[in-house]
Amino acid sequence: MVSGYLVLFKGMTPEEAVQAFEAVRGCGPESEEQLMFLDLLHLMRKRMGPWDVIRELAESLGIGDLMGRA
User: Would you list the domain boundaries of the chain?
Assistant: First the structure.
């Protein structure tokens, strides 16, 4: 969640967001799927505002649907 916030609202890349989180908390994403989700957020953020991305997340039917929206 925190890394996603950094990507959406602070303009960080997924790598920068994970590094920032790991520097403070000493841990990072627990799965490849979480890293893929951050990449997807980053792609979506490149073409729309953060609140638009959140709206797309809320309206999506799942990750497959969301990937089609990116």
Answer: 2-69
